[in-house]
Amino acid sequence: MMMQKNSSAWLWVLPLYYLRKLYPPPPPPPSNLHRNLMSKQFQFKLVLLGESAVGKSSLVLRFVKDQFDDYRESTIGAAFLTQTVTLDDGAAVKFEIWDTAGQERYKSLAPMYYRNANCAVVVYDITQSSSLEKARTWIRELQRQADRSIVIALCGNKADLEERRQVTQEEAKKYAEEEGLMWSETSAKSGDGVQEIFTEIAKKLPLTALPSARSGAARPAGGARAGVDLNRQAGANPGGDACNC
Amino acid sequence: MDEEYDVIVLGTGLTECILSGLLSVEGKKVLHMDRNDYYGGDSASLNLTQLYRHFRPNQEPPAELGRDRDYNVDLVPKFIIASGELTKILVHTDVTRYLEFKQIAGSFVYRDGKISKVPSTEMEAVKSPLMGLFEKRRAKKFFEFLQGWKDEDPSTHQGINLDKDSMKTVYEKFGLEAGTQDFIGHAMALYLDDDYITKVARPSYERIVMYTSSMARYGKSPYIYPLYGLGELPQSFARLSAIYGGTYMLDKKVDEIVLGPDGKFVGVKSGGETVKAKQVIGDPSYFGAGKTDGEGGKVRVIEEGKVVRAICILKHPIPGTEDSDSVQIIIPQNQVGRRNDIYIAMVSSTHNVCAKDVYIAIVSTIVETDKPELEIAPGLNLLGQISEKFVTVSPLYTPTSSGVDDSIFVTRSYDATSHFETVVDDVHDVWRRVVGKDLELKKREVEVEA
Ligand SMILES: Nc1nc2c(ncn2[C@@H]2O[C@H](COP(=O)(O)OP(=O)(O)OP(=O)(O)O)[C@@H](O)[C@H]2O)c(=O)[nH]1
Ligand SMILES: [Mg+2]
């Protein structure tokens, strides 16, 4: 079977060569890379951290789907979402958003979580001063564990609950300045400040960095990671985009 | 912690993490605990501090090795077969989104005192010294036979019955030399010893087809490897579990497996508290492995041999491998007068497992004598100068009972094979015992994309 006309006897000494014809390797990434560089789309990993119930998942829900849920359960299910921000100069910044999925609750967050995070949103609840303490702990942890170039934004959520405020703007802002963090307040409920914080982060990210395999720099979007793509089935329609993120 | 769980999982090795991920997706309420403060158990990848704490508790890592966090050193040397069963699970559960893979650059076999590349291109096949000209022609006929085989078409069978005839019969039919048999059986079918030769040919046929289709998939070798080390695999399944509500507790000592009056599992005692669950799954170390005095309760595993592994830190690629950044080298048992093959698995900074210009090679084999380190000498000798070496002799444990009666399900130790196929077998086996039916891999719902 599969004998080709112009093959020398050598061609068949081992099956690998003609198997390659049966299962053509996936198309090389450069076309993708090219496409994404041309359209100036960059993909960044963003992680969320903060005490339970400060509104991490609510912020993501507002940002990604412009929804809010008053009776949100602790995070189960979708803890991996993507959303794209388009900047004034036309550059598209795609965030690959990781939520903690509760693994931090018993100090069991996997190193994989911080690995190559380009940015982190550390959330506290302005009505709970203890949550700012927890945010400080996470920031120390990030400074220790994460990539040095990580962009960290401190975010005071539930700003709609002004009457119950425990954390003053001055206090949080001062701390953020000392640590060199971005800072702002948001309300996932009303939507105030949510889009802005993600856009500000997008502006701060090094869009000039050459995309390289998870080196802390931006990655070209569209599944064109430098390694092998398992989702691309052997023999699949070449050029078909197997990205499912 | 007065909640009750469906399943408590002890140990965060790959087997346990795949199981807790899949069980959580099925809607089971899972509590996953580990006595260590890191993920991965025996299949972890350690940074330098953890590595030295593990092997040389009284020694600081040498400064010349570089930054602690650049290291993710695997405790168990394994690669992922590109078209194998683990790949299927990775794709079906979508944990691939948390992982990034690279190919292993080459596969080599030891023959007559030196190593040769397993050909992956026409040119390499032509030049390969592994077979002489006439033997290549015979081998070609053999491979064409395997490739052309169709169960339903007797004209492709050439008088062979894969389910009755032994592999020996098949080799003899094509007149393959002993050296070629070594190559096919050990470097392609990945058998550790020669027992397969006298057994029916079907499993060997399947292994060779899996090898060649894996090889064809990405081109350089049949193997892929996750960036940042194998320890990423259990972490990714742990995240899957957590996303589906699994609770994770590391650094949690397990004091006791609590049984009811009927001898059935009731709960796990940790830090003075007992957490209840219907079932428990755990690696052998939580069920008396290596303990003879009954410490930690009844011993529920038995030893089935030992593996010796030497983790070697090198400052150069392995000589004779064309400076490959990653390789597998197989030393077939016949070549060095043994019963079991010796394996070398090497990865490097390309895979984000160590500092630049450092190479991590693990030499391993099944122990046959009372001097295990001497047994791996033929492998160590191929490495050139070794900067650091950590040798372990690990017993391989297997559970003494199915767990169906007492709701206690024990997984197996990581064996000497060079890949994860047997780990997946164990996952299927435990699943069947725990759930009572076969594991079906359904593709997970794809999450919202905005
Ligand atoms: N008033 C008000 N409530 C909010 C806001 N953001 C979140 N909430 C509420 O706070 C509760 C917790 O929100 P989540 O988004 O689940 O918090 P989380 O940080 O993801 O919590 P964990 O997943 O447990 O770590 C929910 O009841 C939300 O409805 C906000 O901006 N204003
Ligand atoms: Mg949440």
From TrEMBL, chain A:
Q: How does the protein associate with the membrane?
A: Lipid-anchor
Q: What are the Low complexity biased-composition ranges?
A: 212-227
Q: Which stretches are annotated as coiled coil? A: none
Q: Where in the cell is it found?
A: Cell membrane
Q: Which GO terms describe its biological process?
A: protein transport; vesicle organization; vesicle-mediated transport
One GO molecular function term of this record is: GTPase activity
Q: Which UniProt keywords apply?
A: Cell membrane, GTP-binding, Lipoprotein, Membrane, Nucleotide-binding, Prenylation, Protein transport, Transport
Q: Which PROSITE patterns match?
A: RAB, RAS, RHO
- What name is this protein filed under? GTP-binding protein RAB5
Species, as recorded: Pterulicium gracile
TrEMBL record, chain B:
User: Which InterPro entries does UniProt cross-reference here?
Assistant: FAD/NAD-bd_sf (IPR036188), GDP_dissociation_inhibitor (IPR018203), RabGDI (IPR000806)
GO terms for cellular component:
cytoplasm
The Gene Ontology terms for molecular function here are:
Rab GDP-dissociation inhibitor activity
- One Pfam short name: GDI
What biological-process GO terms show up in the record?
Answer: protein transport; small GTPase-mediated signal transduction; vesicle-mediated transport
> Family, per the entry?
Belongs to the Rab GDI family.
Its recorded name reads: Rab GDP dissociation inhibitor
- Species: Pterulicium gracile
Taxonomic lineage of the native organism:
Eukaryota, Fungi, Dikarya, Basidiomycota, Agaricomycotina
